[in-house]
Amino acid sequence: MNVLIVHAHPEPRSFNRALLDTAVRTLGEQGHQVVVSDLYAMGFNPVAGPDDFSERRFPDALQYDREQKQASQRGSFVPDIQQEIDKLLACDLLILQFPLWWFSVPAILKGWIDRVFVNGLVYGAGGKRFDQGGLRGRRAMLSFTTGCFPAMMDSDGLLGERDVILWHLQHGVFGYSGLQVLPPFVGWAIQYSDEAQRAAYLDAYAQRLRGIEGDSPMPAHPLSDFGPDWRLRPEVASRTAGHRRAAAAPTTRPDL
Amino acid sequence: MNVLIVHAHPEPRSFNRALLDTAVRTLGEQGHQVVVSDLYAMGFNPVAGPDDFSERRFPDALQYDREQKQASQRGSFVPDIQQEIDKLLACDLLILQFPLWWFSVPAILKGWIDRVFVNGLVYGAGGKRFDQGGLRGRRAMLSFTTGCFPAMMDSDGLLGERDVILWHLQHGVFGYSGLQVLPPFVGWAIQYSDEAQRAAYLDAYAQRLRGIEGDSPMPAHPLSDFGPDWRLRPEVASRTAGHRRAAAAPTTRPDL
């Protein structure tokens, strides 16, 4: 497999970095090709704006997604975006490695998504989304650390259910793009962990990655489950209780 | 009221800008004091990093939240952060105005949250969170535009339920900080709307804002609903079916 790991942590000696290093080493040992985008080290610009295109279709007022569509057709993204698009389209597996900040990815990684998951290639262009998305045939996984304990992210936990917190990333970013979503790897409450626990996490992550090719993606509805009104067809909805809980249920337990 | 509006759109002629202008004018007419942080116009830096502090407690390796805690005690944030903290602490109502990009805020706004919602003042420091959060007594609202239609964000819709998509912002960022969350104002499928529809949205937003002081916040569990295991106490959980659906239900319908 070609694996792209997008890494977003400001500190080179962080535990996130140790997880990244573990992934690079382990996946390499398995014979996979690994490419890393270390966003802080690259000084990646996360702010989507008018200078993201070498030419503009609508120069008077910026319509970002429409400019993306044109740039997808004409190859007119600026180099820092095009390079990341090339990496993304070349991968079979995408891993985002980050500390969970405010229930989501750090801004530098959100900006990588805003600028690189472009209209025309990743979605749009005549209905590319979900199982028809531009990244279909590829898989993706979140790997992150938290400041909280696993019980806090159960459905009755203080912060809310893990897959509800991650819905905007797993169903939104990944699912919408056509990526099949593998259950996340979570390093819980890292600031309260000792050396032995951190070593155990690194071991668990390596073990997980050794079998990653055989991992089953989380359940997801294909577009054909939805009617022309964009709602789940009645016969599908009747077997999907609550908030698609059938889809979320298999993976609500912590990894460790 | 003192109102802080944080605005994140790269185009000064955008519909988001028209919503911002409507809010500034309407709230001003009601006698409120309005402060705007226009992040793109300010060139706001969204990338949290080691240069965010004028002195470091742990200079060897960056532990961002621990440095925030110290900076909260010593007033040692760099000026661009301190200015935003001052605006945040001075407000009675916080409005985030943005286009929904990839099921969340644009990166420049995520970075405003990462850098300004600091450990020590907004949360932490002996258990500040949720109804004990550092921003308790204040209210907050999302105001955003989408590329999708309302049915797509119902519980059986293509994208998933609106308040599940927004969970990381409304329950996560706002709720965790102690902010009471007002139902969002949503401009649906703006790229498909005509002038009349846009004018109707601006009128509806103005009308909403004229009555904003009387708006009821969305239901939220106080910390006392959770036991020492960070789970909802059994007697509370039994009346909160599914994923806190009781809390989400009153606001799942579109605004217009």
UniProtKB/TrEMBL annotation, chains A, B:
Gene3D superfamilies (alphabetical): 3.40.50.360
Transmembrane segments: none
Sorted UniProt keywords: Oxidoreductase
Biased composition (Low complexity): 247-256
CC annotations in GO: cytosol
UniProt region (Disordered), positions on chain: 237-256
Pfam family membership, one: Flavodoxin_2
Molecular-function GO term, any one: NAD(P)H dehydrogenase (quinone) activity
Name of the protein: Flavodoxin-like fold domain-containing protein
Origin species: Pseudacidovorax intermedius
